[in-house]
Amino acid sequence: MSTRRSYDKEFKISAVKLILEGGKSTASVARDLGVNENSLHNWKRAYLEDQENSFPGKGHQKPEDEELRKLRKALHDMTMERDILKKAIAYFTKAGA
Fold first, then answer.
1. 67 vs 51, higher pLDDT
2. How is domain 1-60 classified at the architecture level of CATH?
3. Lowest mean pLDDT: which of 6-20, 46-60, 73-87?
4. Cα–Cα distance between 31 and 52 in angstroms, integer?
5. What is the CA 47 to chain-centroid distance, rounded?
């Protein structure tokens, strides 16, 4: 069984720059670094899509993803509060009758 290796942001950026700026092929860089070629293709795509926020790391998200997560959580909380209030109104309406 092989263990899954993880690479830090600097390593990924350096590997991608070898392809983009060094003029090397993805296959040769993957071979030289001992990295799966498909991983290197994915890193290159992620880097080209958003250089500044690529490879956020474990537990970190891109700013727009973090904002979306917060908004979804807020919506969930508000929905729960609304449902609790609906049940409370129904309870007190029945109790008062």
1. 67
2. Orthogonal Bundle (1.10)
3. 46-60
4. 26
5. 13
